[in-house]
Amino acid sequence: MCEKAKVDNFIQPMAEGAGNAEEGYRNPIDVERAITEPFTQTLIGDARKVPLEPGAADMVITSPPYWMKRDYGVDGQIGQEATPNEFVQNLIECMESWRAILPRWGSVFVNLGDTYHNGSLVNTPGRLEIAAHDAGWTIRNRIVWIKEAGMPDPAKDRLKSRHEYIIHFTPRRRGYYYDQFAYAEKYGNGTGPSDVWQIGFRRNMSKHLAPYPVELVDRILTLACPEQVCTCCGKPRERVVRRTAKLDPSRPQAKRAMELAKEKGLTPEHIAAIQATGISDAGKAMQVQTGTGRNSASVKSLAAEAKAALGGYFREFTFAKRETVGWTDCGCAGSFRPGIVLDPFMGTGTTLTAARAIGRSAIGVDLSSSH
Ligand SMILES: C[S@@+](CC[C@H](N)C(=O)[O-])C[C@H]1O[C@@H](n2cnc3c(N)ncnc32)[C@H](O)[C@@H]1O
């Protein structure tokens, strides 16, 4: 890793114990391997002391054992603690180990279901959020995963639980890698995708229940695992998106707006002016503004001309399709590798499967090798 990365990228020094490679372990950001193609790697280890160096992964997606549910029968396992608070403290210890590995634009997504104990929900997800917040993490989202089916529950005096949470933690309030555009393109919901995800339930063929569908991981990877990371400075490239003048001709209003624009001889500058004045699209507006944060007189007059020509149809251009026009450039002039996701409670390896499917790299860690 270049000097620039050592200075810029990390918020914490290497954690005690990190970097003590297990036998056979190779640094996953080994440039030769990382450039050529995405890789997957599995390690036996404890999620509280993940044996990786800072920069070995870009983000974490994981589903730890839930409190007092399955006994995995391995020494050092998490999930069988005497109290929910001890369980949460162990998860916080894990998160500190991951924080030491992640760059400052990394994210952690934890899928955690709740547990009934003595008849009452104990709220392990909420307890984890509070403890993580107290430990300095930012909680960016509590995603509700709605399941079509789930574990049988014979109780006649309560409703079956058909949701779980995925909590998005970041080490800092801002500056984490996030590609909402890619997510919206893939999973719909236009410009404002929501924190409620309806995804089917599946059992896989192994002896463990894996209530963790590939689609759930894919959604998170799409949001927060970079497509391209500079092998020199370690910075991810960010998508550059611009609103275009392209409208959907299958919508009658959009078709009419395009006809009118043509008939009245409107130029691309007119359309850009409508978009700069008519919507709060700062990125687009900055291109045609004066730099003062206000639209220049010429932009205002172009927008007025265009609005007069189009009447109410001008609005069509304010929600025209957006497109990727490029990627940010860190200036290293080096190569790029795919983002690397770490799953420290790998289980059957759903995270690795999902990463492989879309060309991201993945490292799975588990105490047990018997999955
Ligand atoms: C709920 S499963 C993970 C399910 C996974 N999402 C999947 O798709 O299969 C939890 C896993 O955590 C592992 N585990 C328990 N305690 C651990 C620890 N301290 N460190 C690492 N792995 C641990 C268990 O062996 C088990 O494989």
Automatic annotation (TrEMBL):
Ranges of residues in domain DNA methylase N-4/N-6: 58-227, 338-369
GO molecular function: DNA binding; N-methyltransferase activity; site-specific DNA-methyltransferase (adenine-specific) activity; site-specific DNA-methyltransferase (cytosine-N4-specific) activity
One Pfam family this sequence matches: N6_N4_Mtase
SUPFAM superfamilies: S-adenosyl-L-methionine-dependent methyltransferases
PROSITE patterns assigned: N4_MTASE
EC number: 2.1.1.-
Gene3D superfamilies: Vaccinia Virus protein VP39
Catalysed reaction equations from the record: a 2'-deoxycytidine in DNA + S-adenosyl-L-methionine = an N(4)-methyl-2'-deoxycytidine in DNA + S-adenosyl-L-homocysteine + H(+); a 2'-deoxyadenosine in DNA + S-adenosyl-L-methionine = an N(6)-methyl-2'-deoxyadenosine in DNA + S-adenosyl-L-homocysteine + H(+)
Protein name (record): Methyltransferase
Name of the top EC class for this enzyme: transferase
Source organism (scientific name): Limimaricola soesokkakensis
